[in-house]
């Protein structure tokens, strides 16, 4: 297998880069969308319940099925891959953001209002910073999950290491087929670990010292 | 004790009008709060005049609407009817965010933001009002000093690194940051232990003596109301004002049986809550500054016929009271802070002083005045003498 890696190191490195790039960009986009939705719904119990329902049901949709559905309007390529990966990335963040915002001590919000902070100042200076550790936990779950889902996106000819896995699986029994699948899988696991470490570091840097655990 | 007796007006009350006043008057006209779906209004048509620079205590059973009424003053709860005037100006329709920056607000446990340092917390309102950073920083230090916390030590701490009492002090400092004329306090000392509560009450009295704000203070503790208030409003359900008067007057002649019940039957020793430490003659003691010659301090105390010395830190605050034997063993006066040193403020009640003595198993307490500087020492004998005197007065 080592020879296999050495022979194709440039291709593997390129696909790994594409994979990580897809995941990181989709997680960022998904986080922005999820935070915006969470801010819209967290004050209303009905909307909160709806959001939680959507994020729970959304996660049960098989990635293959979603990609298949997206093929019809968007065809093969990057677009359906990005849409599907962003969709799955947003769900855990949405759930955690709603929980995090709802978990902010009401007396602190009242205290913030009481000293004359505007609604948006309360959100940006008090509620979001206090909910941040919970949101960040959601981002970590998201990232781990969509590293795998991004591999399935190769089914619609999306970019990334999924190509190695699929081409190996389709030629199973042939030369290097197992190597191709294994290398793709192992690379995804390793990259997921690296990304998680980076997120832990980002968490340390972005969580205010006063609320660090 | 006969209930018709009018208690002697304590000397400290006579001093009230001379106090510097930076507060403004508040007037409520028919203020009402009706929640949808409830038959009775939570606050029913309340008229109230709160004079500038006075501390007015709202007391009453839970659910009587006193907190709702307080929160209508800074419009955290919008009144459904009536007008609110601040310094003669109708603020009922003013932008609530702007209004609140002129009204300090303190809640239980301080309501500090855990992700911000002490300095950031205190500086929030000045920054919102557009003060620049240096001016805000100076003000933060000034306020920490005012509430008895060393700015160099506490400025950059986070709330969770403070004790409950310290958090509450920072909460008061934050409320005072932009020097608002009015301070609203919603059961601020409800979550701290009794000893810390006494200290915080003393602090508040001391700060109020310096600043003369208009303070509206909600509590369910009648003793706290008597101790802190220039006036007390006793509420019943629907925020009906049952009695609005000075503590002495309410204790002496409760308006209704309801008030009498609320005040409590144990009024025999109520004099203890009405008499302030500052009204009793304090014993003047020998003091010694940290780092000075111990032998000289011992000699001075001997000459004065005293068996202990009060040690003062560089700001004149008492930190310990070693006996002459203890002090004699050292060459210079030590800087050790005695954490169990019993201290009360001059505006504390005799009741607090007795409590503090008992808690520390000591026969006396150290009394502090402005900025926690030493005012003297109060011995248990002096408290007993004061009780005997007041009982004799009542009987006679």
From TrEMBL, chain A:
* Record localization: Cell membrane; Membrane
Q: Which GO terms describe its biological process?
A: glycine betaine transport; transmembrane transport
Q: What Pfam families would the database entry show? A: BPD_transp_1
Q: Name one GO cellular component term.
A: plasma membrane
For this protein, the record's Gene3D superfamilies field holds: MetI-like (1.10.3720.10)
Q: Per UniProt, what is the membrane topology? A: Multi-pass membrane protein
The ABC transmembrane type-1 domain, residue ranges: 16-199
Kindly list the residue ranges recorded as spanning the membrane.
20-42, 54-76, 82-104, 146-169, 181-202
The residue range of the signal peptide is none
Keyword terms: Membrane, Transmembrane, Transmembrane helix, Transport
Which family would the database say this protein is a member of?
Belongs to the binding-protein-dependent transport system permease family.
Its recorded name reads: Osmoprotectant transport system permease protein
UniProtKB/TrEMBL annotation, chain B:
Listed PROSITE patterns: ABC_TRANSPORTER_1, ABC_TRANSPORTER_2
**Enzyme class of the recorded protein, top EC level:** translocase
Keywords tagged on the record: ATP-binding, Nucleotide-binding, Transport
UniProt entry tagged with the keyword Zinc: no
Q: Which domain of life is it from?
A: Bacteria
GO molecular function terms here? ABC-type quaternary ammonium compound transporting activity; ATP binding; ATP hydrolysis activity
A UniProt-annotated Pfam family:
ABC_tran
List, for all copies, the residue spans of the domain called ABC transporter: 26-263
SMART domains for the chain: AAA
Q: What is its EC number?
A: 7.6.2.9
Asked if the record carries the keyword Nucleotide-binding, the reply is: yes
Q: Read off the InterPro entries from this record.
A: AAA+_ATPase, ABC_transporter-like_ATP-bd, ABC_transporter-like_CS, CBS_dom_sf, P-loop_NTPase
Q: What does the similarity note say?
A: Belongs to the ABC transporter superfamily.
Please state what the protein is called. ABC-type quaternary amine transporter
Q: Which organism is it from?
A: Geodermatophilus pulveris
């Amino acid at each position: 297998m080592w020879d296999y890696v050495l022979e194709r190191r440039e291709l593997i490195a390129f696909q790994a880069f594409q994979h990580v790039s897809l995941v990181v960009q989709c997680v960022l986009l998904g986080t922005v969308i999820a935070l915006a939705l969470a801010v819209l719904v967290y004050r209303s119990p009905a909307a909160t319940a709806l959001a939680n329902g959507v994020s729970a049901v959304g996660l049960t949709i098989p990635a293959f099925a979603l990609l298949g559905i997206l093929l019809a309007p968007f065809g093969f390529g990057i677009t359906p891959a990005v849409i599907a990966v962003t969709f799955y990335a947003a769900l855990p963040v949405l759930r955690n953001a709603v929980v995090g915002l709802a978990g902010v001590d009401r007396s602190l919000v009242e205290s913030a209002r009481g000293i004359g902070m505007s609604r948006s100042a309360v959100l940006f200076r008090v509620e979001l910073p206090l909910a941040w550790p919970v949101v960040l936990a959601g981002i970590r779950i998201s990232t781990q999950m969509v590293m795998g889902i991004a591999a399935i996106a190769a089914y619609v000819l999306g970019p990334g290491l999924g190509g190695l896995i699929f081409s190996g699986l389709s030629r199973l029994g042939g030369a290097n087929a197992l190597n191709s699948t294994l290398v793709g899988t192992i690379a995804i696991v390793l990259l997921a670990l690296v990304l998680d470490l980076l997120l832990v570091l980002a968490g340390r840097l972005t969580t205010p010292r006063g609320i660090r655990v | 004790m006969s209930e018709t007796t009018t208690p002697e007006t304590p000397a400290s009350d006579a001093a009230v009008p001379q106090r510097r006043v930076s507060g403004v008057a508040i007037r409520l006209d028919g203020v009402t709060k009706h929640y949808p779906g409830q038959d009775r209004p939570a606050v029913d048509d309340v008229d109230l005049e709160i004079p500038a620079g006075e501390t007015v205590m709202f007391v009453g059973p839970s659910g009587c609407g006193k907190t709702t009424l307080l929160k209508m003053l800074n419009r955290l709860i919008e009144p459904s009817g009536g007008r609110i005037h601040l310094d003669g100006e109708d603020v009922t329709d003013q932008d609530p965010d702007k209004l609140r920056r002129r009204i300090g607000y303190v809640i239980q446990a301080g309501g500090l933001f855990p992700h911000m340092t002490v300095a950031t917390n205190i500086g929030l309102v000045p920054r919102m009002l557009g003060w620049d950073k240096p001016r805000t920083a100076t003000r933060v230090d000034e306020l920490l000093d005012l509430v008895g916390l060393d700015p160099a030590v506490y400025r950059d701490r986070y709330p969770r690194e403070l004790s409950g009492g310290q958090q509450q002090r920072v909460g008061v400092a934050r409320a005072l940051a932009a020097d608002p004329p009015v301070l609203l306090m919603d059961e601020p000392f409800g979550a701290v232990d009794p000893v810390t509560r006494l200290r915080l009450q003393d602090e508040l009295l001391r700060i109020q003596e310096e600043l003369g704000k208009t303070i509206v203070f909600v509590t369910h503790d009648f003793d706290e109301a008597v101790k802190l208030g220039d006036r007390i409003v006793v509420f019943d359900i629907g925020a009906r004002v049952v009695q609005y008067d000075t503590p002495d007057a309410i204790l002496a002649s409760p308006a209704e049986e309801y008030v009498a019940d609320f005040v409590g039957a144990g009024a025999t020793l109520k004099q203890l809550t009405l008499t302030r430490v500052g009204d009793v003659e304090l014993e003047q003691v020998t003091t010694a500054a940290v780092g000075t010659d111990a032998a000289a301090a011992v000699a001075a105390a001997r000459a004065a016929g005293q068996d202990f010395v009060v040690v003062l830190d560089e700001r004149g605050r008492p930190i310990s009271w070693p006996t002459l034997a203890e002090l004699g063993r050292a060459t210079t006066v030590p800087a050790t802070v005695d954490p169990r040193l019993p201290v009360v403020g001059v505006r504390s009640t005799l009741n607090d002083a007795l409590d503090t003595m008992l808690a520390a198993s000591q026969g006396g307490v150290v009394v502090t005045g402005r900025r926690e500087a030493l005012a003297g020492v109060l011995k248990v004998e002096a408290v007993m003498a004061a009780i005997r005197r007041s009982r004799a007065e009542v009987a006679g």
